[in-house]
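About this split. The held-out portion is used to measure sequence recovery: a designer receives only the structure tokens and must propose an amino acid at every position. Recovery is the fraction of positions where the proposal matches the reference. Here is one held-out target exactly as it appears in the evaluation file.
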């Protein structure tokens, strides 16, 4: 009897067909957000004054963005840009008093609808429905109300909507809960957002503009100003940095706070490795805006601080890793923005994103499949200042004062204004900013005064 060749071939190929048709687990997604962390305080970026070995480890696993931006230089609007994948000006969230509309799709919500288990741990700073009221999250441990501040030492938080007091250092608590979430969802596709409050201030001690004025004057005169600051580090930890920052107890306290943040990030990375999920998980880490003398996180060599559209306010620590999909140990120089995380995650999860996103899928750019820049321009507007980043050029517009132009390829510190020597470029970029601004439903920007502190 002759063998049935067709049957034998079909049987031989059956495992391959079954494997090809079998649904593959979608990538897990973890997004970690630091609060007011300056680019000068991550040791794999511009300086290594403050050591951050775990953030450095994440960068070695993936991509370090040299020009990673957020959509605003203050907490609330910046976070809204990430969650929605849009310029928050599109829905009128232009200061810390604003909020994300209830009907606005959020990245975790889109993934939740696609079958992901979703969690939010940490700070929530947006008026309107709280996370546990939005239907986006299977698990939440967050601020009980929209707030810029979480108590580091005895945080009062809402666990799935139920308010409790916790006697644990907030950074450690958030890392603990992140590890538990990963463990309990290790056999499912999950999206976890961890919004650390470190190294934000604990409370307002002095008006922030006054602190900035005194701090800038001290720096200009070569003196050390010990900024008034409620302690945010674990008890006894700041003393470890006293010798490194003599006479500057606030800076020592901030260094210890950042070290604890780095340790929390390390614990999350360790858990992924221990559970075998390291190569199945896409990770993004970024800061919601730059540091400020008030919280003593440094942006150097970038100019200025939080609340401004100079680089120190909007260009932040920004790292991504997805082993086997994103290249490892790479520095990426083209400008990207936090709103790009939304469409990137959707693309790699095989989920259709909502219409109207301003972000783009970064994957083909990071893999070298596209060699152009992801964006022609990035736009910014807050507190009487506007800005455009296009390639190497940065235009800064002032409601009152001259327009400035900087070549960031040679002047990352924004010290040399080239506006007078490049009038055509100034005109072109100004027109682009005005065209972008005219699209925003709030209309032309209005004059605003700086807030007295970052609670406002």
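Reference sequence for scoring:
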């Amino acid at each position: 009897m002759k063998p049935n060749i067709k049957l034998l071939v079909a049987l031989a190929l059956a495992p391959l067909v079954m494997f090809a048709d079998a649904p593959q687990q979608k990538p897990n997604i973890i997004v970690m957000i630091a609060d007011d962390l300056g680019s000068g305080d991550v040791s794999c970026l511009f300086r290594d004054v403050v050591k951050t070995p775990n953030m450095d480890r994440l960068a070695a696993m993936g991509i370090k963005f040299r020009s990673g931006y957020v959509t605003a230089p203050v907490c609330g609007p910046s976070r809204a840009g990430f969650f929605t994948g849009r310029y928050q000006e599109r829905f009128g969230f232009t200061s810390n008093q604003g909020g994300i509309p209830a009907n606005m799709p959020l990245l975790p919500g889109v993934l939740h609808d696609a079958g992901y288990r979703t969690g939010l741990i940490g700070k929530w700073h947006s008026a309107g429905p709280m996370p546990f009221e939005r239907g986006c999250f299977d698990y939440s441990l967050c601020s009980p109300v929209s707030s810029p501040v979480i108590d580091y030492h005895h945080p009062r938080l809402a666990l799935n909507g139920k308010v409790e007091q916790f006697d644990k250092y907030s950074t450690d608590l958030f890392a603990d809960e992140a590890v538990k979430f990963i463990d309990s969802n290790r056999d499912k596709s999950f999206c976890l957002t961890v919004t650390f409050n470190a190294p934000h201030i604990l409370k307002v001690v002095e008006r922030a503009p006054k602190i900035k004025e005194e701090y800038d004057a001290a720096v200009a005169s070569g003196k050390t100003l010990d900024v008034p600051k409620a302690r945010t580090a674990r008890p006894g930890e700041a003393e470890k940095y006293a010798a490194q920052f003599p006479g500057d107890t606030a800076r020592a306290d901030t260094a210890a706070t950042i070290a604890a943040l780095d340790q929390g990030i390390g614990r999350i990375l360790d858990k992924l490795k221990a559970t075998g999920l390291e190569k199945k998980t896409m990770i993004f880490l970024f800061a919601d805006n730059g540091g400020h003398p008030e919280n003593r996180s440094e942006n150097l060599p970038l100019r200025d601080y939080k609340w401004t559209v100079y680089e120190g306010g909007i260009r932040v620590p920004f790292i991504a890793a997805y082993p086997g999909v994103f290249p490892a140990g790479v520095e990426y120089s083209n400008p990207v923005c936090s709103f790009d995380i939304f469409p990137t995650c959707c693309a790699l999860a095989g989920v259709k994103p909502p219409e109207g996103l301003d972000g783009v899928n970064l994957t083909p750019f990071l893999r070298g499949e596209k060699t152009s820049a992801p964006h022609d321009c990035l736009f910014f507007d807050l507190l009487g200042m506007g800005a455009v980043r296009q390639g190497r050029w940065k235009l800064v517009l002032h409601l009152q004062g001259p327009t400035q132009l900087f070549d960031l390829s040679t002047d990352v510190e924004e010290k040399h204004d080239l506006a007078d020597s490049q009038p055509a470029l100034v005109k072109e970029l100004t027109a682009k900013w005005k065209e972008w601004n005219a699209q925003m439903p709030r209309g032309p920007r209005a004059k605003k005064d700086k807030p007295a502190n970052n609670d406002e």
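Annotator remark: The radius of gyration is 23 Å.
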